[in-house]
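Following up on my earlier thread - several people asked me to post the actual chain instead of describing it. Fair enough. Here it is, all 137 residues.
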Amino acid sequence: MFKLWLRYRLWLFYTVFLAAALMFGGREGLFALPDTHATGKIALMVVFVAFTAFSLYATKAENFFRTVRTINRYLWGRQIGLDLYISVFLSLGVIYLLEGSLLITALWALPILIFANLAILPYLLLNYSALVGLLVG
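Reply from S.P.:
Thanks for posting it. Predicted structure:
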């Protein structure tokens, strides 16, 4: 049982984050479809569900921390990590542009820094219409 806890402990924190994001972090429901650009939100939903499912499968198959240690021994492993976190900080910039608040951006920053795309995708889904409005004009 303890081994199971060790393997899935990050998922417990992710579940708490996701519940809080659903309650407080969005302008629309996770599965609510907007009047315009609904296809984009459906595509994001598919990506989110598939990515989450694959992440759960990877957790079952391999130890996350051991794998990251192994990958980071290689230059390309570090390159991939840097690339990921460049996109994480760009995503935080988009959140700030939409929210206009350092406090809200900071509240999203911690889960995004820990979970990366597993936290960015819910933000995009919960604020899809506002983001489309910001980008389309």
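The two ends are 52 Å apart (CA to CA). That should answer part of your original question.
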